[in-house]
């Protein structure tokens, strides 16, 4: 390990030289209160910024052990510190000083969710923050004076104000950590109570806009549970909390347009994640394996057994091993459900607005006109009960146009002016009074979940092909463009970045032509849990600070959407 003075000496020596001379500062330096690791120096001022780490001994950082005594508390603390650094950077760092990314210091971006990330890591021994730094240059000429200002002035102040416990708002920090733990406990408790989702009274569900996930600033109606569905949960820090508990089974959310149906469903689908204080959805939680299902015209499907929903295609094509380069609305929605069941889910979330109409329902008049012999689709309405009875998979559906679902629902919630009402009894009475004469189609047979085995060479990356994420919804996988626009529970660009490297890691370690996709994902997630997200990095010796952990469901969704994926179905035993 070198000293801070040695780093300064190197910088003085390379001042005014060509940019590549910055490589001479790579190494580890003792700054007294912290250790600076300069792990990778960019080769050009326009290239991706240099990667650095600061490691503060816990005896200096001074965080009480109770703040990271469990996984949820540790996640909350690391999330808080990441946000603290992000908040302090504009206050401390001058920003652009020269060419390209010169003068910038940055950390991973964050949204409304508390996620496992690699940006800050806390242990009994130390606190480690992973940053990027744009080393300053004029053109491609090194500006050592400005580099020293960043490394010896701004960086130590950033560490002091962001990562030393005595300098932080201890009340806000404790609130953040306690909330992370409460959400984890709440998610565990709803399972014990036979619920699939919980929406606390007083929650603010509407968002500012479709591109701004923060809570609506004014005019939002706080959520209040219908009396019939209200339950109380006691949490370690929030104490007794009342709210709407949605039991296992089939639940409809109904109501007029713009009255809050989809807003409630969106809050429930995001309830698989924890949220920061002030988000409005802090105590809206959902079982962790819930999956949002929608139609996805044009997606590729590879050997998925969609026969529980679609059979007897006019061209005679098999639906027990269905493949297509351009799925229709109904075939894509069927595939999305079967793939979710294959990876593992106990709750399907469906919005009528983003579903294929002919997949969801065929009413009595259409049944009369188009005979079942000419209709290959078994509508979801005729399978939803069997999903629950045979597989224990619950469903929450937003429905605005088909009262036929009243017959199969266990409970019906109506949203009226953003107020939730339990209208189950009324809807059931209407269903009895106004019989539709609709006949149940198909169904009756067991719903079989066919596991599939990826063929390793189909995902091989030969030569210098790269994996690169491009925003939230796109990954460049070699020469293949992986589009994730319709994977709606992917919430953070850093999850997308992680997914790209998870696919590579899975291919190199567990895709052997014998192991099923579900087993592969389980093994990868086990490695991440045991070794941290660093395990998926393709660059050994570098320490990525820009990963956020995705769920198994989103990993599976991404692999299934790779247009180069080839699989074989597992033999029936």
What does the model show?
This protein is α+β, with helices and mostly antiparallel strands and 573 residues long. The chain folds into three domains: 2-168, no CATH class; 213-449, 3-Layer(aba) Sandwich (Rossmann fold); 452-569, no CATH class. The chain is built from 14 helices and 30 strands. Strands 1, 2, 3, 4, 5, 7 and 8 form a seven-stranded mixed beta sheet that branches. Helix 3 (71-92) crosses helix 4 (144-162) and helix 3 (71-92) packs antiparallel against helix 5 (170-192). The chain starts with a strand and ends with a strand.
Summarize the helices and strands and which ones pair or pack:
Layout: E1 2-3, H1 4-14, E2 27-30, E3 35-40, E4 50-57, H2 58-61, H3 71-92, E5 105-106, E6 113-114, E7 120-122, E8 126-133, E9 137-138, E10 141-142, H4 144-162, H5 170-192, E11 195-200, E12 207-209, E13 212-215, E14 230-235, E15 239-247, E16 250-254, H6 261-270, E17 274-275, E18 284-286, E19 291-293, E20 301-304, E21 322-324, H7 329-343, E22 347-351, H8 357-360, H9 364-369, H10 384-391, E23 394-398, E24 411-416, E25 419-422, H11 424-433, E26 452-454, E27 467-469, E28 474-477, E29 480-483, H12 493-509, H13 517-531, H14 552-560, E30 567-569
Parallel strand pairs: 1-2, 16-23, 16-24, 19-22, 22-23
Antiparallel strand pairs: 2-3, 3-4, 4-8, 5-8, 6-17, 7-8, 9-10, 11-15, 11-18, 12-13, 14-15, 20-21, 24-25, 26-30, 27-28, 28-29
Helix pairs in contact: 1-4, 3-4, 3-5, 7-14
